[in-house]
Design a protein that fits this description.
The protein is an alpha/beta fold. It has 14 helices and 14 strands. The chain has a 6-stranded parallel beta sheet with strand order 3-4-2-1-5-6, sandwiched between helices. It has a 5-stranded parallel beta sheet with strand order 8-7-12-13-14, with helices on both faces. β5, α5 (154-162) and β6 (165-168) form a beta-alpha-beta unit. α1 packs across α2 (76-86), α4 (128-135) crosses α5 and α5 (154-162) runs parallel beside α14. The longest helix has 15 residues, at 36-50. The protein is elongated, with a radius of gyration of 22 Å. The structure holds 3-phosphoglyceric acid (3PG) and magnesium ion. 3-phosphoglyceric acid binds at residues 21, 23, 63, 147-148, 151, 370-371.
């Protein structure tokens, strides 16, 4: 694929607009609980600044109502963290679409953060008029938001089409390079682990992945639907009953490729202090909830991972946030860390698990993206990447 990269563009004295993905998790008080995405966006910003650009950065944060400012979705905490990381002030600009005194005053070496781009009406619909107005702010548009590359929105797509120059930032380029490289001719066996709470959001990827991989491991709530499809019991676990027939169709279409857990750690309620109980799946009672996989399932999973040539990991296999139900995910994380395979991990929960178990430096590549990562693996063309290719001619 061919895309223009920020490193190839002369930005000295230019106004550079960077669309980053600074959509970080926050606690109830708005404090940032994981700043991975902010840290990952710093190299692109630093590069432009060090080469004499005047830099504007924006991102979305959460999913606010368009057309109105809301304090709870403000990027103020992000501006503060970014300023700490860059070691310089990062003013936060509200109502920035048509420029203003702040824009006129922007000098080479300055950086500002433009408020949550999803406050602007037309952002999510990729409104071309909004995109054109925003494109007037800059000489060079940089898309460094791989985490949002699966969305065609005004700042991720339309603006890139309208700006004088459009290129990929270093994070975007590194993500696309790493994932394309790993998936173009993966070392076999290729093992994918797709876990997490819901099947419906990931069902199309499961089918597409089952075609491409040698083993598809399902975990978490996704696995519960497959357990039902395979005739096991799930009690009152999180499960999507209306998708059982689809899960069964996948099991039938790919015999032996999609192993289903055989035992589980269950509890009567969903809580950190719930009493864990180990059960074979045929013994799961109506009032049990499956919160982790059991030791037999862990053993087969470890054996698969140990033999893998390439591993793609999205989603925890249990409620790893609760120590009593973290065993399966920890064993999986340790097995991936220990394996000689090229390993790629992505998604917010997955990164949280990787950090909790301290194995980040033993994963070959960690993607900052969740949804975009999955759509890329599925083989879909991501709109932001398509735009960059189009602009590269
Ligand atoms: C993400 O966190 O998945 C990306 O930042 C995209 O956010 P969105 O799902 O709200 O579009
Ligand atoms: Mg999301």
């Amino acid at each position: 694929m061919s895309i223009k990269r920020l490193s190839e563009v002369d930005v000295a004295g230019k106004r550079v607009f960077i669309r980053a993905d600074l959509n970080v998790p926050q606690d109830d008080n708005g404090a940032i609980t994981d700043d991975t995405r902010i840290r990952a966006s710093v190299p692109g910003i630093r590069d432009a600044l060090s080469r004499g650009a005047a830099v504007m950065v924006t991102s979305h944060l959460g999913r606010p109502t368009e057309g109105q400012f809301s304090e709870g979705d403000s990027m103020a905490p992000v501006a503060k963290r970014l300023s700490e990381l860059l070691g310089k002030p990062v003013p936060l600009i509200r109502d920035w679409v048509d420029g203003g005194p702040w824009h006129a005053a922007l000098k080479p070496g300055d950086v500002v953060l433009l408020e949550n781009c999803r406050f602007n009406k037309g952002e999510k619909k990729d409104d071309p008029e909004l995109a054109k107005r925003m494109a007037k702010l800059c000489d060079v548009y940089v898309n460094d938001a791989f985490g949002t590359a699966h969305r065609a929105e005004a700042t991720t797509h339309g603006m890139g089409l309208a700006a004088p120059v459009a290129c990929a930032g270093p994070l975007m380029a590194a993500e696309v390079d790493a994932l394309s490289h790993a998936l173009a001719s993966p070392k076999r066996p290729l093992v994918a682990i797709v876990a997490g709470s819901k099947v419906s959001t990931k069902l199309t990827i499961l089918r597409a992945l089952a075609e491409k991989v040698d083993v598809l491991i399902v975990g978490g709530g996704i696995a519960n639907t497959f357990i039902l499809a395979a005739g096991g019991h799930v009690g009152k676990s999180l499960v999507e009953k209306d998708l059982v027939s689809e899960a069964k169709a996948i099991l039938d279409a790919f015999p032996g490729k999609v192993p289903v857990p055989v035992d589980a750690v269950v509890a009567k309620n969903f809580a950190a202090d719930a009493t864990p109980e180990l059960k074979a799946l045929e013994n799961v009672a109506d009032d049990d909830m499956i919160l982790d996989i059991g030791p037999q399932s862990v053993a087969y999973l470890k054996a698969i991972v140990a033999k893998a040539g390439t591993i793609v990991w999205n989603g925890p296999v249990g409620v790893f946030e609760f120590d009593a139900f973290a065993g399966g995910t920890k064993a999986l994380a340790d097995a991936i860390a220990a394996s000689g395979a090229f390993s790629i991990a992505g998604g917010g929960d997955t990164i949280a698990a990787i950090n909790k178990f301290g194995i980040a430096d033993r994963i070959s590549y960690i993607s900052t993206a969740g949804g975009a990562f999955l759509e890329f693996l599925e083989g879909k063309k991501l709109p932001a990447v398509a735009m960059l290719e189009q602009r590269a001619g």
